[in-house]
Each structure stands twice: as C-alpha cells, then as structure tokens.
Amino acid sequence: MYKPHFSADFYLYTFKIANCTAQHPHDWSTCPFAHPREKARRRDPRLFDYEPLPCPDDKKWHSCPRGDSCSYTHNVYEFHLHPKRFRTQMCQHGVACTRPLCFFAHTLEELRCRGGWGHHASCLANCFA
Ligand SMILES: [Zn+2]
Ligand SMILES: [Zn+2]
Ligand SMILES: [Zn+2]
C-alpha cells in the first residue's frame, strides 16, 4: 500500500528547497533538505518563476549561465516536483506503488490540477476542458 513520507505541500515547497540543519555528516541523496553545492537543490516555485521544462543550456554547459533567474528547470526534482507537474498524472502502479518518492498521484484525492495551484477535485469540471 502506497504511503507518502511527506505531505504534498512539503514536496512542493520544502523538499530540496529548505536548507538542511543537520550538523552531522549524512547522505544528501536520501535527505529531503537542500545542501550547499548540491545539484539536486530546488528553487522555491513560489519565489522563482520557472516552467517545468528541462533547461537546454544546463545540459550543454553543465551549469546554466542564467543560474537562479533561468525560466527552466535544472534537475529532475525541479522538473517533477514543479506545481504544474507533481501528481498531475496517475501513477501506473496505483496504490500498489512502492517507490520511496513517486512524482505521480495514487488516488483521486492525491491528483492535482495541471493549472498549478489547486487541488484537482475542486476543479475537475474546468480541468479537462
Ligand atoms: Zn541533510
Ligand atoms: Zn537554465
Ligand atoms: Zn507511484
């Protein structure tokens, strides 16, 4: 049975955005917070204006010349945890999903609106238009 570790809001606005406060050395890849120089760090989508599309320059130059002001995403977390993408599609495994971090929805309650900011159930009528 699928059981998310954190709330949707945590994944959208805290996961790899808020700085890690742990003092001891630990594995960054399994820690939900952001670390200095970490490639997986995300910009808060409420403060930075970027679309859920991979940045072509980041691939080309290994580091995007526009940095934080770029309007594209720079890693898989920025891409998949973007409010316009995270849980806007159903997971093919449904509630049987065993991924520790899955970017898709497992129930209709989890399904989010593609428009970005709301819960899907409240906008079903407009959403598929
Ligand atoms: Zn950490
Ligand atoms: Zn970029
Ligand atoms: Zn899943």
For the structure shown, list the relevant keywords.
single chain; 129 residues; mainly alpha; 4 helices; 16% helix; binds zinc ion
General description of the model:
By secondary structure, the protein is an all-alpha fold. The chain has one domain. The chain has four helices and no strands. It has helices at residues 8-13, 56-61, 76-80, 124-127. The chain is globular. Bound molecules: zinc ion (3 copies). One zinc ion (ZN) binds at residues 55, 57-58, 64, 66, 70, 72, 74.
Number of helices: 4
Summarize the biggest pleated sheet.
none
- H and E order: HHHH
Strand tally, please?
0
Q: Ions, cofactors, ligands: which are bound?
A: zinc ion
Considering DSSP H and I runs of 4 or more, what fraction of the residues is helical? 10-25%
Poorly predicted sequence stretches spanning 5 or more consecutive residues: none
Radius of gyration: 16 Å
Zinc finger (C3H1-type): 49-77
InterPro entries: Unkempt-like, Znf-CCCH_AtC3H23-like, Znf_CCCH, Znf_CCCH_sf
Domain C3H1-type: 49-77
Keywords: DNA-binding, Metal-binding, Zinc, Zinc-finger
